[in-house]
Write a structure and sequence with these properties.
Blueprint (H helix, E strand, L loop, with lengths): L1 E10 L12 E17 L3 E7 L5 E10 L2 E4 L6 H20 L8 E8 L9 H13 L3 H6 L7 H6 L5 E6 L2 E6 L10 E5 L6 H9 L6 H17 L3 H19 L4 H5 L7 E3 L7 E5 L2 H9 L5 E3 H4 L2
Parallel strand pairs: 3-6
Antiparallel strand pairs: 1-2, 2-6, 2-7, 3-4, 4-5, 7-8, 9-11, 9-12, 10-11
Helix pairs in contact: 6-7
GO molecular function, one term: kinase activity
Protein name: GHMP kinase
Keywords: Kinase, Transferase
Length: 307
C-alpha cells in the first residue's frame, strides 16, 4: 500500500488578485487529507472517502475502460452523483497524463480528511495533489484542467511552512516565507457557517470592472511583503484593514466586518472567497466570546490550525 498526504490551506493575503499576479501569503494548515492506494489486477477502482469523524461520505466503484471511468454505484443522491462526476473528470485527466498507470491495473483507494469539507480548507486541492503524487504527474496542470484557479492551494498542499505565491510570465513562483508573528496568540480563525464556492467567487471577481488591475496587484503585493516583516500587532491590523479596503473596492462588496460584525472591537480579515469559509480575527478571550455569543462555535487558535 502507498500513502500520500497533503496540507490544507489558508490564503492570508491576495485573495482574488492572486489570479492577476499579486504576491500572496499562503499558510499550510495542520489539517489535511490523505490518500491510501492498494494496487490489484481487477481493472476497477474501488473508492471510499472518509470525513473527519471517519464516517464514509462518498463511496463508488469505477470500471476502467480505455481512459473512461464508468461509475458502478447505484446511489443516486445528488451529492453522490456530483462527487462521482467530479472524480471521473479528475481521473480522466490523470489518465491522459499517465495512461500506463491504469493499463491492466485496478486500485483500492481510501481518502481521509482531517477537516470538515465545508470549511474551505482545500478538499479539492489536497485531493488533486495526492492524486498527482500517486501518479507522478504535474499537480498544477491537473488542477488547471479540472477545477482551475491560481494554484496557490497546490503550493500550500506541498509545503510545511508559510509561502509567498505569485503567478508570473514564467509560471507559478512559490517561496518559503519567514512568517511567524510574535502576536499569533492574539490571532484566531472563525468559520462563518457558510460554504463559499470558489469557482463562483472567482466568476464574481472576473465580472467586476477592471480599471486598475496593475495598481491593485502592486498594492496588495506590497502589503504582503509588509505583513511578512511586521512584528507589531497594531501595524498588522492596519495592513489587514488596508487590504480589506482594496479588495472590497475591487469586488464591489462591503467588508465582512462592516456587514456582519460592525461592533467587533478587533480587526477581521476575510479569507478566500468573501462571504463564506473562515475569517481571521484579532483579540483574546473576550473577542473569542463575542463570536461564540453570535453562534459561531468553530473557532481555532492560530497555532492550533497553522503549521
Amino acid at each position: 500500500m502507498q500513502e500520500f498526504r497533503s496540507n490544507g490551506k489558508i490564503l492570508l493575503t491576495g485573495e482574488y488578485a492572486v489570479l492577476d499576479g499579486a504576491k500572496s501569503l499562503a499558510l499550510p494548515t495542520k489539517k489535511g487529507q490523505s490518500l491510501e492506494v492498494s494496487e490489484n489486477q481487477s481493472n476497477f477502482i474501488s473508492w471510499k472517502s472518509l470525513d473527519e469523524n471517519r464516517n464514509t461520505w462518498f463511496e463508488s466503484d469505477f470500471r476502467i475502460e480505455n481512459g473512461d471511468f464508468i461509475p458502478l454505484s447505484k446511489n443516486q443522491e445528488s451529492l453522490h452523483k456530483e462527487t462521482a462526476r467530479r472524480l471521473i473528470e479528475i481521473l480522466q485527466e490523470a489518465y491522459q497524463a499517465n495512461p500506463e498507470a491504469f493499463s491492466g491495473k485496478g486500485y483500492k483507494i481510501l481518502t481521509k480528511q482531517d477537516f470538515n469539507r465545508k470549511w474551505g480548507l482545500g478538499t479539492s486541492s489536497t485531493l488533486i495533489n495526492n492524486i498527482a503524487q500517486w501518479l507522478n504527474i504535474d499537480a498544477y496542470k491537473l488542477l488547471e484542467r479540472t477545477f482551475g484557479g491560481s494554484g496557490y492551494d497546490i503550493a500550500a498542499a506541498q509545503s510545511e511552512l508559510p509561502i509567498t505565491y505569485q503567478l508570473t510570465p514564467n509560471g507559478p513562483a512559490s517561496f518559503t516565507a519567514d512568517f511567524d508573528p510574535p502576536f499569533k496568540d492574539q490571532l484566531f480563525f472563525v468559520y462563518l457557517n457558510r460554504k463559499q464556492n470558489s469557482r463562483e467567487a472567482i466568476a464574481h471577481y472576473r465580472n467586476q470592472p477592471k480599471n486598475d488591475i496593475r495598481g491593485l496587484v502592486e498594492k496588495l503585493s506590497g502589503i504582503t511583503e509588509q505583513i511578512i516583516r511586521t512584528e507589531s500587532l497594531e501595524q498588522f491590523k492596519l495592513l489587514l484593514k488596508a487590504h480589506e479596503t482594496l479588495i472590497s473596492k475591487a469586488i464591489n462588496l462591503p467588508r465582512i466586518q462592516t456587514e456582519l460584525f460592525p461592533e467587533f472591537t478587533g480587526l477581521i480579515k476575510s479569507l478566500g472567497g468573501w462571504g463564506g469559509d473562515f475569517i481571521l480575527a484579532t483579540g483574546r478571550e473576550p473577542e473569542r466570546k463575542y463570536f461564540r455569543k453570535q453562534g459561531y462555535d468553530t473557532i481555532f487558535e492560530y497555532s492550533e490550525l497553522i503549521k
